[in-house]
Amino acid sequence: MAIAKTDIGPPDFRQMLPPVITKNYGSWKYHENLKPGVLKHVAESGDAIYTVRVAGSRLVSIDFIRDIADIADKYCGGHLRFTSRHNIEFLVSDAAMVEPLIDELKQKGYLIGGTNNAISNVVHTQGWVHCHSAATDASGIVKSVMDELVPYFTSESLPAKLRISLACCLNMCGAVHCSDLAIVGIHRKPPKVDHERLGKMCEIPTVIASCPTAAIRPNPKEKSVTINEDRCMYCGNCFSVCPALPIADALNDGVAIFVGGKVSNARTAPMFSRLAIPYLPNTPPRWPEVVSAVKNIVEVYAKNAHKGERMGEWIERISWERFFELTGIPFTDKHIDDFTHATTTFRTTPTFKW
Amino acid sequence: MAIAKTDIGPPDFRQMLPPVITKNYGSWKYHENLKPGVLKHVAESGDAIYTVRVAGSRLVSIDFIRDIADIADKYCGGHLRFTSRHNIEFLVSDAAMVEPLIDELKQKGYLIGGTNNAISNVVHTQGWVHCHSAATDASGIVKSVMDELVPYFTSESLPAKLRISLACCLNMCGAVHCSDLAIVGIHRKPPKVDHERLGKMCEIPTVIASCPTAAIRPNPKEKSVTINEDRCMYCGNCFSVCPALPIADALNDGVAIFVGGKVSNARTAPMFSRLAIPYLPNTPPRWPEVVSAVKNIVEVYAKNAHKGERMGEWIERISWERFFELTGIPFTDKHIDDFTHATTTFRTTPTFKW
Amino acid sequence: MALRDFGGQELEIDEDGFIQDPGQWNQTVATVLAQDEEVPELTDEHWKVVNMIREYYLKFGIAPMVRKVCKDTGKDLKQIYALFPSGPAKGACKIAGLPKPTGCV
Amino acid sequence: MALRDFGGQELEIDEDGFIQDPGQWNQTVATVLAQDEEVPELTDEHWKVVNMIREYYLKFGIAPMVRKVCKDTGKDLKQIYALFPSGPAKGACKIAGLPKPTGCV
Amino acid sequence: MEESKTPLLDQLESGPWPSFVKEMKRAAKKSPMAKDALGQLELSYTEKRVHWKHGGIVGVRGYGGGVIGRYSDAPEQFPEVRDFHTMRVNQPSGWFYNTASLRTLCDIWEKYGSGLTNFHGSTGDVILLGTVTPNLQPAFDALSEAGFDLGGSGSALRTPSACVGPARCEYACIDTLDICNDFTQTFQNELHRPMWPYKFKIKVSGCPNDCVASIARSDMPIIGTWRDTLRIDQAEVKHYANSDLNIRGAVVAKCPTKALSYDATKMELSVQPEECIRCMHCINMMPKAIRPGVEKGATILIGGKAPIVKGAYLSWVLIPFIKMEPPYQELKDLLAKMWDWWDENGKTRERIGELIDRLGMGAFLKAVELKPVSQMVFRPRSNPYYFWSPDEIN
Amino acid sequence: MEESKTPLLDQLESGPWPSFVKEMKRAAKKSPMAKDALGQLELSYTEKRVHWKHGGIVGVRGYGGGVIGRYSDAPEQFPEVRDFHTMRVNQPSGWFYNTASLRTLCDIWEKYGSGLTNFHGSTGDVILLGTVTPNLQPAFDALSEAGFDLGGSGSALRTPSACVGPARCEYACIDTLDICNDFTQTFQNELHRPMWPYKFKIKVSGCPNDCVASIARSDMPIIGTWRDTLRIDQAEVKHYANSDLNIRGAVVAKCPTKALSYDATKMELSVQPEECIRCMHCINMMPKAIRPGVEKGATILIGGKAPIVKGAYLSWVLIPFIKMEPPYQELKDLLAKMWDWWDENGKTRERIGELIDRLGMGAFLKAVELKPVSQMVFRPRSNPYYFWSPDEIN
Ligand code: SRM
Ligand code: SRM
Ligand code: SRM
Ligand code: SRM
Ligand code: SF4
Ligand code: SF4
Ligand code: SF4
Ligand code: SF4
Ligand code: SF4
Ligand code: SF4
Ligand code: SF4
Ligand code: SF4
Prior knowledge:
The complex is a heterohexamer, with two copies of chain A (354 residues), two copies of chain C (105 residues) and two copies of chain E (394 residues). Helices cover 28% and strands 18% of the residues of chain A. Chain A is built from ten helices and twelve strands. In chain A, 64% of the residues are buried. The model of chain A has no long low-confidence stretch (mean pLDDT 97). With 105 residues, chain C is mostly helical. Chain C is 49% helix and 10% strand. A two-stranded antiparallel sheet of chain C has the order 1-2. In chain C, helix 1 (27-36) packs antiparallel against helix 5. The mean pLDDT of chain C is 91. With 394 residues, chain E is of the alpha+beta class. In chain E, helix 2 packs across helix 3 (32-47) and helix 4 runs antiparallel to helix 5 (133-145). Chain E has helices at 7-10, 20-30, 32-47, 99-112, 133-145, 176-186, 188-192, 214-217, 234-242, 247-251, 281-285, 329-345, 352-359, 361-368; strands at 67-68, 86-89, 96-98, 116-119, 126-129, 161-162, 202-205, 220-226, 231-232, 260-263, 268-271, 290-291, 296-302, 316-322. In chain E, strand 4 (116-119) and strand 5 form a beta hairpin. The N and C termini of chain E lie far apart (91 Å). At the A-E interface, strand 1, strand 4, helix 2, strand 5 and helix 4 of A face helix 2, helix 3, strand 3, helix 4 and strand 4 of E. The complex binds siroheme (4 copies) and iron/sulfur cluster (SF4) (8 copies). One iron/sulfur cluster (SF4) is lined by residues 190-191, 210-213, 215-216, 227, 232-238, 247 of chain A.
């Protein structure tokens, strides 16, 4: 049997570029932010390209892709791109096309925005739509949260960029660990061991090694493993390597919120997001608790941060103790780290705020 | 047999205070730094006490103590104290006695100073004088270093306080781990296992548990232990718990230098000292390599730091990469942490200085 | 869980066709599974790989890492794919009767 | 290393009088060592402590922690010092023939 | 009127943000798979739990990855999603498309799959969401016929991605798109045939703004930067001075190293070159007046990853500065050495960063033959626990 | 002329810094022990290695500690230091002495010891350096007759120490000397009879300047502070303004939280009370104009220690603010709970900080019945790995 055509790799991006980009590739001089969602990049040659950025829901049908292709054909000579946060960018070479494009997009209900000091699209993951590992849904929460935060997408009114991400389990496929605001699906009960299946379906040494807290011991009698429930913090990694350790639990699964991460190097080095709210329940379809918690944090930030300050920069300036006070979020034992580098987060000075 | 008089505790300090202190206890209002080594504290009552601080070598004979007692009798109504850095403080209640005291001290060769932006006494430990664990001597290095740095003791010319400490082994009895400049005795070869004695003299489980890097395994055949030499970083802790693991090695023992620690909370939180020079040889009686290395660091600091900046504050401002450049100290694999929290010291940003 | 006939022996298999109890594996099972993985005939070269994987699993309780398979059988990855078009995990491990690889996909 | 006579048996002791080979300990040794530690007579109460320490050492290879000694013998620290004026480490452990406690002093 | 079968999800059709439920319904009109996917999602919304089974190992001929196997745990209720595998299609660098190629993808997925997609997955691939086992090979054949290939999955190189870079960004210090494309092409074998202890990700950002979050989301970030001094156009500074930008407060005062100074009377901005750490802040604030230097290249970092198992890492500086010119051989050689060391020493499911953490940065540097430099660390160690090799002692 | 027996050490007699060799020689004149100690030290200088044997366990009746046993490994050559034990004598709080008591100590040590001392040891004791086993008990008896007692050693409470505090420092927010003395007296049993997994140190500083380095050098630092607002005397501010102090540059600009503002025309300094973190900087710079608030107390921290075994720790905030009034019962009760938990759970040679690190701050707080507050941490955890207790879940 013939091996199919393999290893051709992706199409060369050069085939995909609009002519003005091909011409001015690597020779852009500056850009202007014409209005929310609309950028103008000017090349050394004097040429310009206009970008109109539109919110994507990421989980889309092929018909949606055809829709935007139609629009791109009409205004962009058939060229568009997606951003690293899953927005759609219409690339307009002809200045005269910009406003008509915007009009048509608006008329069709597309949201234009996400640039500069906005909340851009929420990087997120599969959730109940496709992943076996999900402790919560992804798309549903994103939709619910963003329905509420749309004004921050279509304007640039925040002190700085605010990047929200969501991951439906601790694997954190959204790499939410460095987001201004991160929503993470969590479990709260140890996996149940299905002794019967475990020995057959799973590699016991791998299962044991998978546990970050060494909570799993061999159980030779059952040809299985035993979980020390006191040491389990429900990361689900053992389940990742072994289907016989189901951890999902409708009554206890839910969502945690982390804040203050960033990845850019502007002013301050990248930072991890840190625990703000240890648990909120799963309340589909619209997760009102999550929505209002996120809104609260965003609004307190919007009101209090200095201009130009990212969430984490603001919190580090005012102090975390003040953050908890301003947001009214209770500080609990959960917030105090007890993982590997815990001691590096403990306060080693009698100086702090009340 | 009668049990002796026990558990009486130390003498009550109240018996030891000069009358002016007893009277103004807890009611001091402010102080002035009259000149290097001379302080004036003024009480709410208007009373004042003068302190004349004198360098102590710490390792002193009883005759020395009697000498200073004589001086205290003459000028201080029989009152004196020692500082937390082992200096001697003559406590003068009568303003008229200050200058005569200073004259007598100078005439007898005592060094007056150590206040304010000075190098004060070097906190140090036993060394070869009394401890079995020492990788270097303590008093000898201190004497050699301070002979060179005396001008910084008797003046207040540095950008800020500079606290030097010395510990003769990694047990760090001087608690040098938060000093502006720390001198630490180190070994560089794994202990030799004396199998014959080990099983009898030492608790094997304790020996195994003592090793920070888990380099020690049981060796049941020898009723002893085996050291994985690749994992040993010569901390000597196994020797602390087991005499049958001698680690001292005249050819390889020596001194390391750490910099940038502090414990006060002024401006910045306390900081650990960090590795500057991984190894300098033991060269008694005057350790010229250590002396000149210390002098170099002090002088580069004195020249470059802003006024009011402690060593660590200065380095954190200019960056460690710049510190190595300015001091000419080579950066090596030793400087890159590989202990427990190593990753927290790795640079997680492409921003740095050249 | 579906049942499948392996030359007379009825064994449980999962959706991907992996046998559910590695203890029930034998050469016939291997031969049958090989068909699914586009290996019409298990040659000596195939067996070398299958046996190595099987033995490693029985000894250590885990599937060998790919580098190990290559080293121990003296084959490079290309040759492994030539023998097992669906690759070492889906192809060779399945034929060797190991539990289904999990995790990182 | 000095030698010392323990009722006929010559044993090595160190400067502090600890016997060098815990394997050579016996009741006579204990009785002799007790003299040094100002325990003129080993009563049942003394033996309770000595035996507990000895057994713990033989079982775990380490001296029991003081809290453990107190718990298992039902005595508080004061009572231990009353029995062994030089304390559990220098007194009781020595009499029980353990290796000399090290480290933290 | 028929009662809705998805009353919960229906509530997510309203509201201004684009609705994935609408999209699923659109697909459901044409595809029974999509319909059952919607139905099963409603079940999850009702029961508050996932209804997919663990894992699944399916694929296409000659590849060890690129497909995520997925089976319903309620196949009786939703037979069309009994199998519902995902195909990861390697995106063109920078996520640039012409509409023709997009339409081709849609047509293929209309024929072989559910009609549901993610544009894009978190790693960067086009996610073709949901099809049955027998369709995998034909779908793949059609894709490769159309010039597309699968992306990475499993313990392999994952699909690299890159920011828009020189295609549309004046800040780009390296050709992110070419690098991404070139590395992807060079390492097709590593991408398609998992053979390592675990996954390995490469992401390329044109400058320290790091618009693909490479430092957090990839094992080896390549981040554009410069070696010399940033360039200031004083004429443009004056324009900014006359605008409503507060140069002193918003730019100079926020420079992390106080490298900038501003003369308000002359309206001149100056930089102390050796103090600038190339954070991008001033450039971001005054893109018309300030730009990177001319000696351009990249900082290479190593070790970034999500929390599982040892906790999340941000990547660590490995090469402070390297020129990035095709064919990027120096970096490719380094990659080979790194992979070799990792593959030789790593445990199953141990990312390279975790291995470096376990065996020590020193051991790693020695293995890949890089010299320790102070730029690799924020600060040196504070503990006194370091090693000497036999050749260093007496 | 006789040739010197200590040619190396002799070189340390010259130079301006006080010479310990001179001191040893002074003692050697009277004491053969001191003479042999000097001789053996010369041997160490020659051979570059220590000549003391490991450990030694000697003591006085009724105590488990207070004496450090020490034996020479060259007793034939230096018979007088065959035994050369150290006695640790508990200093009076704040190291205050009258000359009479100093002379008493000297006389006792002249009679029973080598005449060598350390004023003081690193923990704070008077170190009486070197005597023989038979002299220990008589020396102790003489000391206690004179009102002195031994300090701590071994797995016990170590001799507490305190900064000069209210005796001579206007910054003192607590009575460091009384606290030190009171705790020492209360815990005599814990100090003299080792019973814990390892040592435990208490140090008391009157304010956040921490002049006894308590945060680095003790398991439980007690650091004076205040709960309200610092007090500013504007008249004195004006004096400083007219001096050569640069109030804006040296004081205001260096306030870590930018809590201060200075009006140069009015020569007035003001503070935003809720922003001040009580770092002491401005007070240190302007002691006549600024002073701590009036609601005084202490911050209690926990866990500080030197590097062995798990690496050095700086202590961690445990109680952000507590009033410190005799008999300090609340804190003593807390100490009892902490020691109990540590003693119950600690391994041999595990400091309390290491145990907290191993079992988690949460477990510790629960055991000692303290509520978690945000002041305990610089920042919350970044990993998602936290525990739920059965009563918190369904
Ligand atoms: C299109 C996109 C790159 C791509 O290849 O897709 C992009 C494009 C630009 N980024 Fe970005 N960034 C893009 C994702 C990011 C990310 C990644 C992310 O969010 O996951 C980051 C890191 C965010 C973080 O730190 O967490 C990012 C951090 C920045 C920054 C740094 C901002 C800061 O102060 O921290 C700048 C500079 C600025 O905004 O002034 C920047 C600036 C820009 C500029 C102005 C660059 C230029 O001159 O063209 C572009 C327009 C920005 C705008 O939205 O106003 N871009 N940018 C990405 C758009 C995502 C979206 O749809 O919203
Ligand atoms: C006497 C002594 C306390 C005692 O009980 O013995 C003491 C006394 C004073 N200290 Fe201190 N400090 C003493 C050890 C310390 C220590 C501990 C140490 O060095 O091991 C520290 C922490 C050092 C560190 O951070 O590493 C210390 C950090 C301070 C500071 C903070 C300085 C800073 O900016 O970081 C001040 C404030 C200042 O100097 O402006 C201070 C201020 C003072 C004042 C001015 C307080 C006062 O108003 O009386 C006293 C005179 C200081 C001087 O020397 O100029 N004292 N001081 C100690 C003298 C030691 C010596 O002989 O040199
Ligand atoms: C599809 C995708 C999420 C999405 O909706 O976009 C995804 C989906 C899965 N990821 Fe992921 N990961 C995806 C990007 C990521 C990212 C983000 C990135 O690459 O920038 C991360 C964080 C970065 C990193 O790699 O550290 C990520 C970190 C993980 C992890 C944790 C790895 C770690 O070392 O911490 C796992 C767990 C595992 O490997 O078993 C994981 C595992 C998984 C699995 C395979 C579930 C599993 O345990 O087997 C998910 C399959 C879902 C499904 O059924 O469709 N996924 N995963 C992303 C890939 C799409 C694409 O190819 O474009
Ligand atoms: C005498 C003294 C040094 C000095 O010259 O001043 C000293 C001397 C010894 N210390 Fe210490 N330590 C002394 C203060 C300290 C300090 C400083 C402090 O208390 O402020 C520390 C660091 C703070 C701390 O406790 O963490 C200290 C941390 C150690 C350690 C490491 C403990 C750790 O947890 O990291 C050891 C090792 C051990 O306990 O086995 C140690 C062990 C020792 C031993 C007993 C050696 C041993 O391994 O058995 C030393 C006996 C020396 C001798 O023969 O005279 N000594 N030791 C200090 C006590 C004098 C006094 O009572 O005033
Ligand atoms: S975050 Fe977890 S649940 Fe969500 S897609 Fe990734 S692995 Fe699946
Ligand atoms: S869920 Fe995580 S912590 Fe719990 S047993 Fe499994 S791997 Fe360990
Ligand atoms: S630092 Fe080490 S060698 Fe020095 S006194 Fe302490 S334990 Fe002894
Ligand atoms: S010296 Fe330290 S690292 Fe080496 S074996 Fe002994 S305890 Fe372990
Ligand atoms: S990372 Fe830099 S070069 Fe790339 S898009 Fe962002 S700003 Fe432009
Ligand atoms: S790039 Fe950053 S560090 Fe450099 S001058 Fe601009 S703001 Fe300062
Ligand atoms: S710690 Fe504070 S109170 Fe104590 S002496 Fe130092 S400055 Fe004064
Ligand atoms: S004490 Fe410190 S934090 Fe408070 S106002 Fe003064 S300088 Fe600022």
